[in-house]
Amino acid sequence: MDPTVLAIWVVRLLFLGLLYVFLWSVVRVLVRDLRSAAREPATELGRLVVLASPGGEPPVGSAFRLDAVTTLGRDVNNAIVIEDDFASAQHAALTYRGRAWYLEDLDSTNGTFVNGTQVAGLAPVAFGDELQLGQVRLRLERPRVDRPRG
């Protein structure tokens, strides 16, 4: 056998071996990251606190953790269910984009309000702002920071 052909085969096998080692290490890192993400609780982005709820549901003072996309309305498939006759089934969506919150009215019948001003489409929302869906009023608050006790 020609030494050149033999050298090419050795290089091919080494390259194939290195490729498999690289792929194995990538899969190992991905699995480790997925496992650690599953163990850690999700980072809280913000909270909605109920200020007024004439119907009693959700109760005044209750707080809801917010995800990057949180839907609000009367339908049970929403992240936050608002039991109010003036709220639509799919009333509004609160989304976290980049470093800011936005409230979107989902063509509700009675409108969505931020600090008393009706939202037309998409509106930026800041911590401390008051949202109103139907007769239910909520306040957007910063996430709760749990500090380790020492």
Structure characterization notes:
With 150 residues, this protein is of the alpha+beta class. Helix content is 25%, strand content 31%. It has one helix at residues 3-39, and strands spanning 47-52, 63-65, 69-73, 80-81, 92-97, 100-105, 112-114, 117-118, 122-125, 130-133, 136-141. The strands form 2 sheets. Strands 2-1-11-10-7-8 form a 6-stranded antiparallel β-sheet, with no helix packed on it. The longest helix is centred in the N-terminal third of the chain and has 37 residues, at 3-39. The model has no long low-confidence stretch (mean pLDDT 90).
Question: Which class do the helix and strand fractions yield?
Answer: alpha+beta
Distance between the termini: 72 Å
Shape: elongated
Percent of residues in β-strands: 25-35%
The counted number of beta strands is 11
Q: State the share of residues found in helices, binned by percent.
A: 10-25%
Order of helices and strands: HEEEEEEEEEEE
Question: Quick gist of this model?
Answer:
The chain is an alpha+beta fold and 150 residues long. It is built from one helix and eleven strands; from the N terminus they run αβββββββββββ.
Summarize the SSE layout with pairings:
Elements: H1 3-39, E1 47-52, E2 63-65, E3 69-73, E4 80-81, E5 92-97, E6 100-105, E7 112-114, E8 117-118, E9 122-125, E10 130-133, E11 136-141
Parallel strand pairs: 3-4
Antiparallel strand pairs: 1-2, 1-11, 3-5, 5-6, 6-9, 7-8, 7-10, 10-11
